[in-house]
Design a protein that fits this description.
about 130 residues, about 80% helix, elongated
């Protein structure tokens, strides 16, 4: 049996993932400083970006506008750029990062990468 995920639910998945990312970066990383070490303003900025992604994806989940394919490509590109930016931060701030920071970002890249692939495949499907 083959299950397909509708575009509407891919936007929901992206929204929920962005909320989890915002929570992890804006709350967990900020308040568990014994494990994580990125500067708090950087964490808050990344969390704000994730919240913006969540709002965009939630809007598309609720309304599934006619140009959903374009919007799905937009969020896929935005997610990719988010990963590139956080990779840049991890590299440029590597001296201050702890192992848990690296583990978190590798896992985040893998999860976001899988979602981006799903978004691209869906947005290009007929």
């Amino acid at each position: 049996m083959v299950y397909s995920i509708t575009p509407k639910y891919i936007f929901l998945l992206d929204c929920l993932g962005a909320i989890v990312t915002a929570f992890m970066l804006g709350v967990i990383h900020v308040y568990v400083r014994s494990i994580f070490s990125l500067p708090i303003p950087t964490l808050q900025f990344l969390a704000l970006i994730a919240i913006c992604f969540a709002v965009f994806s939630f809007f598309n989940y609720i309304y599934l506008v006619k140009q959903w394919r374009t919007n799905m490509k937009i969020i896929a590109i935005a997610n990719t750029l988010f990963c590139v930016y956080t990779a840049y931060l991890a590299i440029s701030l590597h001296a201050m990062l702890k192992i848990w920071d690296f583990i978190y970002f590798v896992l985040e890249f893998l999860i976001i990468g899988a979602v981006v692939l799903l978004e691209w495949r869906t947005s290009n499907s007929k």
